Amino acid sequence: MPESSRTGRPDGKSATRNDLVSSVDLVYRNAKMAIMTGEYAPEAALRLQELAATNGVSMIPVREALRLLEAEGFVEIVPNRGAKVAPLSIADFIDLHQTRVVIECEALRQAIPHITPQQIARARRYNAKLVKQKLQRGNPSYDDHRAFHFTLYEPSGSRWLMQMIGTIWDHTERYRRLGAGFVTPDEVFEEHERIVTATERGDHAAADLALRSHLNKTLDIVRQALQTGVAEPAGATAGADR
Question: Residue 173's closest CA among 90, 237, 93, 232?
Fold first, then answer.
């Protein structure tokens, strides 16, 4: 398709190929975040016309965005029946969790010899920020929580580990929110601080143990939430903080 080729827009004006790519990216990002945060519930129908109207685009970028999300496992497209959000399951989360433990512990192991005092300080600032957010609204920022962990992993220098961890994180976010209400701000701080302290000391064994313990606690909480159908205790506010 030539770069100057055009396609229709909801306002009746012509749009370039770049406009179409931008529209696909817009729908993709918005729909993915809505799925990750639970705004679009597991197995909820994804209606093309509603997605088009919500994002101010035509049906073409909506279909392309849903194909991308299907390829990543966030969406299921059923022929002649439309698209829906992928379901959650205990088996899927255990698989995700086991993969996450392997690659995150390896990233931390590789990062420890290279991490700087500045990066340690940055991780602690993020941890304090997460606790404050949980106290204020019960829902720490996904971006800040991700930044805390990635600050500790990125000194590994492994582009592929970071890419794989990012993919796993996007999928586990849907599950983490189920059990987030069972975790107190003090637990968030203490578990994260144990990881940071061991990393700062250069203690590979202690850092690995602290990270595994942190992740395994998430597994236990989410598994219980999935088995009982209870996403949070009475009076708690759900949010992703693990």
Answer: 93
Classify domain 6-85 by CATH number.
1.10.10.10
Specify whether domain 90-228 bears CATH 3.30.300.20: no
Q: Which amino acid is at 46?
A: L
What pLDDT digit, counting tens, does each position of 193-218 carry? 999 999 999 999 999 999 999 999 98
Question: For 72, phi and psi rounded to 5 degrees?
Answer: -90, -5
Question: What's 33-97 look like in SS3?
Answer: HHHHHCCCCCCCEECHHHHHHHHCCCHHHHHHHHHHHHHCCCEEEECCCEEEECCCCHHHHHHHH
- H helices present in 180-240, as ranges: 185-201, 204-228
135 CB neighbour count, 10 Å cutoff: 13
Question: How confident is the model at residue 20, as a pLDDT?
Answer: 60
**Residue 158 DSSP symbol:** -
User: Quick one: tokens of 108?
Assistant: 């931390």
Residues in the chain with pLDDT < 70?
1-20, 230-242
Q: What is the pTM of this model?
A: 0.80
Ranges of each domain in the chain? 6-85, 90-228
* All residues at 6 or more sequence positions from 85 whose CB lies less than 8 Å from its CB, including other chains: 35, 40, 41, 42, 43, 44, 46, 74, 75, 76
Helix or strand or coil: residue 152? helix
The pLDDT tens digits of the residues spanning 112-130 come to 999 999 999 999 999 999 9
